[in-house]
From TrEMBL:
Signal peptide start-end: none
InterPro entries reported for this sequence: Tcp11
Family per similarity comment: Belongs to the TCP11 family.
Protein's name according to its UniProt entry: T-complex 11
GO CC entries: acrosomal vesicle; sperm flagellum
Native source organism of the sequence: Gopherus evgoodei
GO biological process, one term: regulation of sperm capacitation
Amino acid sequence: MPVQVMDKSFPSPAQQEVGANFMGLESRVKETLHKAFWDNLKEQLSASPPVYTHMIQLLQEIKETILSLLLPWHSRLQGQIEEALDMELITQEAEHGALDIPSLTMYILGTMAMLCAPVRDEEVQRLQGVTDPVQLLREIFRVLDLMKMDMVNFTIQSLRPHLQDHSVEYEQKKFQELLAKLPNSLDHTTEWLHKAAAEVSASSLSSPSHPEVCGSPAPLSLGAVSSSSSIPSPMSVLNQGYMNLLRWEPSLEKYPETLLMDQARLQEVQLQVNQLTIIAAVLLVTSSVCGSALLSSPGFVDRLKRVTKALLEGLPHTRFREALLDISNHVHQEVSESLLQLGYPAFTSDKSASLKGQIRSIAEDDNAVRSVIEQRIHSFLSLHLSPSAQNSCSLSKGLAPIQEELLEVGHRFGSMIHHNRQVYGPYYLAILKKVGRRTQLVFRIML
């Protein structure tokens, strides 16, 4: 009986990916299709005689993926791969029942071992011990996906300096063209920096002592400190402006024109900061009420963190109050279950009410715990405004449970600000020179 190779009605994993990149129901449909595909492949290979329809599809996709990982100077290796994975020959072998799957997969693994990054060596080597052909193919696709991501990261890393230089020049050119057409295109940026300068000046005045202002300010540059410690330096004003973006109220303030391109990403960072503030505050309150014995039990803090994070996911800060109602109930439930498992006495009704009440009160703008955590997070993030200071950033008390997320946010925030400063630094400097002269006059009047 001839081997069947013509049935192509079932979509391959790569084809399934095209229409299933959605959340919720679409994600479940995607998982179902994947499972059905691999189950069908297993049935085909177990049939008598075997059916190689899906196997040929997968080998074609594997070949294309491996070829996409080759660099320009891999022409010799490309020829070897084309010869070893000759799809016309493989199809003929399948039709005659002579397809040697183990030999093909061993060649594929050997080629992957040559092309993968050192960090993937162990992954590829582990695949050599997988004997089930269906499971082996699934793992090959998984590791190839990782290798594709490694290649993307390598390419981006290699091109980054070139892209950044051209991006800065391009953005400056386009913005200058806009200014030529619309001379008032920096009004909101000027207002943003004026507000930051006023805040920095007020902070200087409220300090226990400040030296008398005299003389004229030295020529300003973004990296310089003003000649008088009382007059805010351009860098301190600009950094204050950047930090104000994390407390921005879009309904009350217009976004600076120089940051409109980054507004969506900066608002994502702002939302993450707000969520991390709530998570850290919830954990700190729970720690103070429950004590160190319960907090140190394995997995307890991680469970509270996951629950809190899940209930805050996707919510704007205006809905934190209602979210904290659910969070307080879930935290109390988690605490009660952990106390029971560890053999500790259950909370009294008064202590339970205190735990829930303190967690719910975090929603208040003037909540002391929330204010302290927010201040510490902002202080940490402010260090990321200077690339040279990022490696020396240390976490304040109460932020350890969110360290991983906070480092990621800090890196994203710092990268965006660094690029923005490179592009628009000359415009900021021109505005801040005027701000500096006015600020000095205000200081002299007030002193």
